[in-house]
């Protein structure tokens, strides 16, 4: 069954337009400068202009053609992503980056029906190792790697 409008494209376009408008509003007091002498507001406004152009394109395309109806949102993936963010925020400073990264991946993986436990555990360990190597060792950020 198709709908009269491609609501998915129209909503995505509207989202981009709203985000671009918020960026324009948030950077309204920053000087723009010129391409040869960029001010602090130059890049945010240029990127917001590009995002607004894409948003208008997708919104126009969404309203000019039919599309498939949007599926009803499922609660489990939404809760898993929010839980993963909360797990990282709560464990990042107290338990260390490695434990926080592993917990984040495990909690986020609970949101999918297609999750394979062995792959998730291997990915979590690899992501934790890469995070510690990058942020703690290479960049020397003051983040504890381990709880001890």
List the helices and strands and how they pair.
Blueprint: H1 7-26, H2 42-64, H3 75-94, H4 97-109, H5 117-138
Please tell me about this protein's structure.
It is a single chain. By secondary structure, this protein is mainly α. Helices cover 66% and strands 0% of the residues. The chain is built from five helices and no strands. The protein has helices at residues 7-26, 42-64, 75-94, 97-109, 117-138.
Please outline what is shown here.
With 148 residues, this protein is mostly helical.
Which key features would you list for this structure?
148 residues, flat, mainly alpha, 0% strand
- Mean pLDDT across all residues, rounded? 93
Assembly type of the chains comes to: single chain
- Percentage beta strand: under 5%
The general outline is flat
> What are the segments in which pLDDT stays under 50 over at least 5 consecutive residues?
none
Instruction: Count up the helices.
Output: 5
Gyration radius (Cα, Å) is 21 Å
- Helix/strand-derived class? mainly alpha
| Largest sheet, strands/sense/barrel | none
SSE string, helices as H and strands as E: HHHHH
Note the gap between the termini: 57 Å
Number of strands: 0
Helix content: 55-70%
């Amino acid at each position: 069954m198709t709908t009269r409008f491609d609501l998915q494209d129209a909503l995505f376009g509207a989202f981009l337009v709203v985000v671009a408008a918020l960026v324009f509003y948030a950077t309204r007091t920053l000087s723009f400068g010129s391409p040869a002498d960029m001010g602090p507001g130059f890049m945010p406004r240029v990127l917001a202009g590009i995002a607004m152009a894409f948003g208008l394109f997708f919104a126009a395309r969404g309203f000019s053609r039919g599309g498939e109806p949007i599926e009803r949102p499922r609660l489990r993936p939404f809760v898993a992503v929010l839980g993963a963010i909360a797990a990282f925020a709560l464990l990042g400073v107290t338990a260390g980056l490695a434990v926080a990264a592993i917990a984040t991946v495990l909690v986020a993986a609970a949101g999918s029906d297609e999750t394979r436990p062995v792959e998730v555990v291997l990915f979590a360990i690899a992501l934790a190792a890469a995070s510690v190597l990058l942020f703690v060792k290479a960049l020397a950020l003051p983040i504890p790697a381990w709880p001890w």
